[in-house]
Specification:
Helix content is about 30%, strand content about 20%. The chain has about 270 residues and is of the alpha/beta class. It has one domain: Rossmann fold, CATH 3.40.50. It starts with a strand and ends in a 7-residue tail after the last helix. The model has no long low-confidence stretch (mean pLDDT about 90).
C-alpha cells in the first residue's frame, strides 16, 4: 500500500504478487476494493497494481481538480513510483478514459489493453448519444430515493434477483467514495483519427445487460479500434468483472497471457 503525489492529488495504490505486471483501473462506481475477485486470482502469477482515481476511495484532490484530464498522468505517477515500465491494462467504464489516454500517450508502456464496459473515451455518434441519454436520466432522477434492493445502474437490471449479496455489496463498496462532486471530462473525447497507427492488442468486454453502454455501442467502437477483439458476457450488466468474475478472469487471463507475458518491472 502506498501513496504517490501527482500534481495537487495524492493517489493511493496497492501492489500484490509477482510476475508480469497487470494494472486495474476502476470505474466511477468503484475504487481499489471492487477488484477483490481479480487481485487474488491474478496475483498468483502477476504483479497486480490497483489504484484509486483522484477523488475516489483513498485518493484525494481538491474538488476543482477532480477532472479526467489528470487521470492518465496519475496512472503514470503510480507506475513510475511502483517501478513498472510496461504493463497490461485492464479498465472498467470510467477507467477506460484513463487507460486509453495513457496508452495513446505511452504506447511502449502498455503490453495489451482490456476495455470492459467502456468505449475508452472514443467518440462515435452512438457513444455520444448514449452519454447524452445517461445525462438526461441522471438529471431526471436527482431527487428520487433509491430503494436498497434496486440494482446500481452499473449492474444488470435483474442483479438482485440473481445474486442479492453481490448486488448489495456493490452498493456498499461504491458508497465509501467521498462525495466531492462530479468528475469533469471537458474535451476528453478521442476521435477515430487518433487511432490511425494504433497497434496495442485490445480486448473489449461487453455485458449483455449493460444499461450504460449496451452491446451494440461497444460493438460499434470495437470496429474503430484497429485489431480490437470483442467478447460478450450475456449474463453481465455494465460490470462483468464484478457480476461474472469467473468468466471475466478466464477471458482476461487468456488474453493477457498471450499478449502481456513479459516482465515489465524496472
Amino acid at each position: 500500500m502506498a501513496v504517490v503525489r501527482s500534481g495537487s492529488a495524492e493517489i493511493y495504490y496497492e501492489v500484490h504478487g509477482e510476475g508480469p505486471p497487470i494494472t486495474f483501473s476502476h470505474g466511477a462506481g468503484g475504487n481499489t476494493l471492487v477488484w477483490y475477485n481479480q487481485v487474488p486470482y491474478f496475483a498468483k502469477n502477476h504483479t497486480v497494481v490497483t489504484f484509486d482515481h483522484r477523488g475516489w476511495g483513498r485518493s484525494t484532490c481538491a474538488p476543482e481538480d477532480k477532472h479526467a484530464k489528470f487521470f492518465a498522468g496519475d496512472l503514470k505517477a503510480v507506475l513510475d513510483d511502483a517501478g513498472i515500465e510496461r504493463t497490461a491494462l485492464v479498465c472498467q467504464s470510467m477507467g477506460g478514459w484513463t487507460a486509453m489516454h495513457f496508452t495513446l500517450d505511452n504506447p511502449g508502456r502498455v503490453s495489451c489493453l482490456v476495455l470492459s464496459g467502456t468505449p475508452g473515451g472514443i467518440s462515435t455518434p452512438k457513444v455520444i448519444e448514449a452519454r447524452a441519454a445517461r445525462s438526461r436520466s441522471r438529471t431526471s432522477n436527482l431527487d428520487r430515493t433509491i430503494p436498497w434492493n434496486e440494482p446500481h445502474l452499473a449492474l444488470a437490471a435483474d442483479a438482485f434477483e440473481r445474486d442479492p449479496s453481490m448486488a448489495f455489496l456493490y452498493r456498499m463498496l461504491s458508497g465509501v467514495n467521498p462525495p466531492i462532486g462530479d468528475t469533469a471530462t471537458g474535451d476528453m473525447g478521442i476521435s477515430s483519427s487518433r487511432l490511425g497507427s494504433y497497434d496495442v492488442p485490445t480486448l473489449m468486454i461487453s455485458g449483455g445487460g449493460d444499461r450504460i453502454f449496451p452491446p451494440a455501442i461497444l460493438e460499434d467502437v470495437s470496429k474503430v479500434i484497429p485489431g480490437a477483439q470483442l467478447h460478450s458476457i450475456p449474463l453481465a450488466g455494465h460490470s462483468p468483472y464484478f457480476e461474472t468474475p469467473d468468466e471475466f478472469n478466464r477471458v482476461v487471463g487468456e488474453f493477457v497471457s498471450k499478449h502481456g507475458s513479459e516482465n515489465g518491472r524496472k
